[in-house]
Each structure stands twice: as structure tokens, then as C-alpha cells.
Amino acid sequence: VGPIAPLLPVVGHDTLVPLVDGRQVTYSNLDVAASAPALESVAQRVAETLPLYASVHRGAGYLSQVSTALYEASRRAIGDFVGARADDLTLITRNTTDSLNLLAGCVPADPVSGAPGRVLVLDVEHHANLLPWQRLTDATVLTGGATVADTLAQVRDELAGGASAGRPYALLAVTGASNVTGESLPLAELAGAAHAHGARVVLDGAQLVPHRRFSLADSGVDYLAFSGHKTYAPYGAGALVGRRDWLDAGTPYLAGGGAVRRVRTGTTDWHDGPARHEAGSPNVIGAVALAAACEALAALDPAEVRAHEGELRRRLVGGLEAIDRVSVVKVWDDAADPVGVVTFTVTGYDPGLVAAYLSAEHGIGVRDGRFCAHPLLGRLGFDAGAVRASVGVGTAGEEVERLLAAVRALVADGPQARYDVVDGLWVV
Ligand code: PMP
To answer: CATH number of the domain at 43-298, please?
Structure first.
């Protein structure tokens, strides 16, 4: 196997991490599904923008105008990157969770009964794409099948059953790629099935957008939510992009300055458009950073990204499966083309201990636990959690090799340091 270089440089890739035996190693970039390090080009754009910002949307001063222009240009760049249709809105939010909560508050009630709108969701979802629907809409959670084909058939039947019983679904909420396994359901089929029965589709794009070129216009998907901090921008900004009518008719997500045309003590005339849901001073720097990340990803050849991450994933899965006592988790038997998210267990070792060992003895940061997907981990039999490694455009082949060597060493020799559980966390 030859070396694989990162496709784009990320900030911090040469940061030194001290190990328990006194050695130092460079930080390893294998936890991008949790939060990806920023691209160097993003960090540079942020540094260039910091001296420029001033009160956005609220001032006539020169820098206020620059800030407003930067914010609105960032909004357009983010929408363009995900193929927003001409009439779609791009809202700047805090993250995927924020975007999905916002949309959940805008799902229209049943026009006849006035009951909250029905939303269909699968049990494979991250809590961010489950709990908002359960809290704010009439949500039905389907237990998925063992294959993509069965799961798709279940979704179709449920959508059809709702429509023929006079209780049609308003929305199908589905992940673009599982944050546990990187697997996904075929989007075009899902969107076709939803639309055939009068429902819209919202895609949780948190794990899809950083890894695959996605287009709302081409896919027919109605809404997309994603996060900047998983898309090689820093924390604090995400987006909700999609059909305007529900957003313009929905209750404003935040009440406050900027969301209104006119207020009298007894009446409020709310804006439509993005301003309706973006009360308060917006995150200009976050939007600029996310737009810079979108532009950097847009400049890459999507086939090259797919090949890079696909090869890293193949090496990771192949290498892990070749190690005694290691199993790789999957949801479906027939999922095509998963993104670079790989969850595994090591029989005989608590996942928290595996993650602590990888960090303390090898300088490798990975995620352990139930990945905010408790229903799925429970159904698959992993209530005790698992370990997740993930790769992206900033990950090198050498980092995958280092992880595999570390897991081999754990299975062969056990941990070298002594670990204890303190406050529920494994520590040296
Ligand atoms: N959905 C998926 C598939 C995710 O992986 C995550 C983050 N783990 C989220 C939603 C939530 O993202 P955020 O924490 O940025 O709101």
C-alpha cells in the first residue's frame, strides 16, 4: 500500500502530543466526524476578516457595510455549494441541531384537523434528527430493516399508509450518511417516495456535506441541514437551506431585533426571508468561515475526494477486520458507498478504555460511546458503546496505519499504562 497524502492542509496537523511514556507524536486527524480541524484556507480567511467586522445589518459605517456584504455573500456561497434552488432560503444557524430544531418549528399543522404535522423518521438517526421531531411535531419512528432494500420498502409503505388513511406525512427526516457507520439510504428513491405521497424530505447532511458533493436542486431533497465544524470550519455556524414557504410561514425561531419590520407595544410585524429566524447579532465570522470551507471543497474534484476518502476507509475497515477480536459495525448488509466513518469494538476492552489508550499511548483522538444515536446502538446490541474513527480530506494514509498498528498492539500486548474510571471517563 502506497502513501496517501491529505487533499487539503488543515490547521494543527503538525501539533505535538505528549504520550504517557514521555515520547511526543504528531496529532492524528481521525475524528473528523465529531469535529474536523479547520482548513488552512479557512483560518486565513478568518484572520483576514477579523479586522473588518462591525455591526452587521445595523449600521451605515463603512465597516458595517463591509460586514453586511460579507455576511450576505457568505450566505450565497453556502447556498450555492449545496445547490440551493433560486427560491430556496439559506439560513445561518449554529449547527445541524439548531437547523433541525428551527425546521421542526415550521412544519405546518394538518390543514383539516389543525393537529401538528406528521414527520416520519428512522431509528438510525442522530438524536439531532430525532428529538426535535418528537418534541415539536407528530413524529413516527420506524425501526429500520436489515437491508437498505427492506428499509426503503418500509418507508414507502409507511408513507403510503399515512396518505391512504387520510393522515399523510408532511415530512420525511433522514440522514445523508450515518454518523455511526457512514452508510446511507438512496436519496433519490427516498425523495421520490416522499413526494409521491405528498411529503417533503429533510436531509441531515452533517456527515454527508463534508464528504460528497450534494445538490438540493439535483436530488429533489427539500431541506438540508449541516454543520460548519464538521465541514472544516470552526465551531458556531451551520446552515439550513431549503423551500421558502414553510420557513416564511413558520413561527420565528428567535424573537428579537432584526427579525421584525415594525413593532408596537401590542403588535409585531415579522420579516420573512432569513431575517425572520435570525434575530440577534449574527455570527458573521462563522458564516465567513463556513463559506470559505464550502469554496475550498467546491474547488476539489468530487471524484478525487471520493477516491481519497474511499481508499482510506477501505484500508481502515480491511485493517480492523483483519485484527483478532475486532469487529466493525454496520447497519445494513447492502449499503452502497459509505463515507469515511467507521465504528468498531474490541472484544474484552471497554470502548472508553480503547479510546483512552489510543490517545495516551499513541496520540490518536477518536470518539467512543453511543454517538448520540442511542436507539440505533441499542438495536444493534452496542448499549455499552463502541469506538469510532473517521477520515476526511485532511487525513493521511499514515494516520490510518498508525491507528491500525495501535489496535494491533492493544490486542497483542494490552495497554501499557494503568487506566481507571474517574467520573465515568477512562483516564491514565
Ligand atoms: N447529525 C449527524 C449525522 C451528526 O453526526 C451530528 C454530529 N455528531 C449531528 C447531527 C449534530 O451536529 P451538531 O452537533 O453540529 O449540531
So the answer is: 3.40.640.10
Q: Is the CB of 204 under 6 A from ligand 1?
A: yes
In percent, the amount of the chain with pLDDT more than 90 equals 95
Q: Taking the model in full, what pTM does it have? A: 0.97
Q: How far apart are the first and last CA of the chain?
A: 34
**Residue ranges of domains in the chain:** 16-30+302-427, 43-298
CA dist 196 and 192 (Å) reads 6
In what helix (H) or strand (E) does residue 91 lie, and over which residues does it extend?
strand 89-93
For 103, 139, 223, 254, 296, the CA distances from 133, given in Å and listed in that order, are 9, 6, 14, 18, 33
CATH topology of domain 16-30+302-427: Aspartate Aminotransferase, domain 1 (3.90.1150)
What's the gap in Å between 296 CA and the centre of ligand 1? 21
**Span from the CA of 126 to the centroid of ligand 1 (angstroms):** 7
Nine-digit cell at 39?
482548513
**pLDDT, tens digit, for every residue of 312-345?**
999 999 999 999 999 999 999 999 999 999 999 9
